[in-house]
Amino acid sequence: MSWHVHEDTIDAYVGGRIDEASAFSLEAHLLACASCRDAISTRVDVGDQERIWHGIREQTDRPAVRTAEWALIKIGVPAHTARLLVATPSLRSSWLLGVAGCLAFAVIASRAIGQARTPFLVLAPLVPLIGVAVAFGRPVDPAWEIGLASPTGGFRLMLLRATGVLVTSASLAGAAALGLPRPGWSAAAWLLPSLAVTVLTLVVSSTVVSVTSAASGVGIGWVVGVTVVERLSSAPLAAFGPVAQIAFAILAATSAIVLVGRRDAFERPTQV
Amino acid sequence: MNRPGRESDKRGVSTPHGQDSDDEALIAAIADGESVALRTLYDRHAAWLILRLSRRCADPAIVEEVVQDTFLAVWRGAHRYRAQGEVAAWIWGIGIRRLIDRLRRRSVRLTLGERTDLEPSAEEVVLLGIEHGDLAPAMDRLSPELRAVLQATILDGLTTREAARLLGIPQGTVKTRLMRARRELREALA
Amino acid sequence: MEQASIEMTKVTKRFGRVRALDGVTVSAGPGVTGLLGPNGAGKTTLMRMVATVLAPDEGIVRLLGRDPARAGERVEIRRRLGYMPQEPGLYQRFTAFEFVDYVAILKEMTDRRARHDAVRRALDAVGLTDVAHRKVKALSGGMRRRLALAQALLGDADLLLLDEPTAGLDPEQRLRFREVVSQLPHRPAVLLSTHQTEDITAMCERVFVLAGGRVRFDGSPEALAETARGSVWVDQDRDGGALLSWRMGDGRYRHIGDPPAGAAMAVPTVDDAYLLMVGDAREAREAAA
User: Fold this and answer.
1) Number of domains in chain A
2) Which of A101, A211, C65, C221 is 20 to 30 A distant from C246 in Cα terms?
């Protein structure tokens, strides 16, 4: 900078007493001269600047919201709850995309086979099962212990995340089911089994068994069970028939009651 | 956008940017998420931005909002800064456009980087009058409307359309006034 | 009335056949109380109990005057509790700010503005304001420790539990850590578990030595050192009859155990007393096995 603005001119500018031509010149100069800008800075009310800064900082400190979290907030989940939900993998976009992919694959497989919807109906309940396995607990949640010691506590955190998993899984599966050949009542036949196996897994995970092992065990039991029933019975889709649905409903309800009774096991695990 | 040689992604190695960094280095740090760099940039540029915007908008509440929005836009868009000249000029470009949006209450925001650098013509360089003194009497002879148009286009760097929005006059009027202003100034300076 | 913030009476905890805690009685009030012991002594088990995440098999636990076995009181305790577990437990993809914000949500701070103010205060207390928006994976080891401490400081906890907080820190970082902990304005009850005696001498007004699941000592660090009086001596050479001996900087050997007649006695330190106690405990365990 070959010249700097005279102090009087700066004072006049700040005080609003300057003529337009000089203001022009000064403003153009300021774009290129740091020391004259500093001279201006010392003359502007600090209190105002601080207040404006606080407004900026409030916004910049706000954690960036990622896709899945944004979607949750859009459908009405409180922002702080959404934060808790997306901390573990089960409700992140990557996981959800993977799930959607698997379900789509299952639908395609069902269509390819023809009438039988079995691949899809067997797969759909496994989705929330795997989902809860990656939703909470020490292996997937590094901050699990901090969560246990917080007022929210292990039980509420587990319930929150399990609900999130169930709802999203059911929505995705429901959407995928529309692609099944001749959807009808059987397109929703996976719903009660999903609920039952998931709640059962949660109950089992409240024992010394980890949630991952519980999910694996129940998952294998499910697949084996369905296969066995299908082989043994003459009616198609017997494992999803009306009798079976009632059985799943009872299983789900009983498991839910037991789960609430086992609350303490989530709050104060015997083996942390 | 990571510049080569920047170590801010290594564990705790780089110190956050402080008073001795130049503006461009601050922008790079902001793009990496260093809020301290934003604060330093703010401390350097908030004052003149507030004053300059206040001379175009009488409502201090609007000016405050616009200043906040401007620095937030810097925070979010720092990675789009492409070494395009003075950082102060870039900040001004954001600020004046935010002001126009605000005054016209548009929901569609102009994006950053939309305006590329226009090479000022020789006249405009003269008009910018780095040496002040020559300009004052010539400017004084112009009518206020012509001066306003000059300020909006040449000083503030707006397109004729943006100037029209800011001043609340049709775009054609901006063009004619600009031509007249330039002609009169050229005559006065000759 | 200053009620003890932590009161554990004859607490026992078994994992399988192992007694992690055996009839342990511990109490602590405002100020820093140390829990000193070797790895596997039951320190983390005790910390977890005080953190309300583990239930005892036998014994009584009272925290801030309340019973953690009752669900309602447990939540009350947790509202005033800050816990820094042994494993840092940080989310790699979060920024420092986001992580503390997450814990603040767990602590039921639902109002965003107040919560962010609390987060800023916590980060400021540990000196991480400048890197608040850096991702955890880009933070150094010392910074991560401080971050783990910051989340424990949220909400001005009345009960602060720090499990091996200085492990892996260099001396300068440890010093800074001690400064933060000893300058907390609201005087919480701090329970600090460590196996480094310098932390005890530097910070603690009271110390419990835990070895083999049992409390071996309860008192001030000075009193702890005193317990080794008459059991520490110095000699030119190694003494086979000592419980433990090591070579000092000046080439002589320091011994702890039963001194031989005429030995040159040394002024005991907390270190000496600790080694003596732990060594005794180990011997007793080996003898019983």
Assistant:
1) 2
2) C221
ipTM, 2 dp: 0.88
Does the CB of A1 have a partner CB in chain B at under 8 Å? no
Nearest chain A Cα distance for residue C89, angstroms = 4
Q: What is the pTM of this model?
A: 0.82
Q: Domain C6-80+157-219 is classified in which CATH homologous superfamily?
A: P-loop containing nucleotide triphosphate hydrolases (3.40.50.300)
In chain C, what are the domain boundaries? 6-80+157-219, 89-143, 224-288
Which among A9, A11, A31, A37 is the top mutation candidate for probing chain B, defined by the most B β-carbons within 10 Å of its own β-carbon?
Answer: A31
Question: Are the C-beta atoms of A241 and A248 separated by less than 8 Å?
Answer: no
pLDDT tens by residue, A49-87: 999 999 999 888 888 888 888 888 998 889 999 988 888
Contacts of A48 in chain B (CB under 8 A): 50, 64
Domain that holds residue A79: 67-267
Q: Are A128 and C57 in contact (CB under 8 A)?
A: no
The number of domains in chain B is 2
pLDDT in tens, A104-145: 888 888 777 766 667 788 888 999 998 888 888 888 888 999
Using CB atoms, which residue from A83, A145, A148 is nearest to C105?
A83
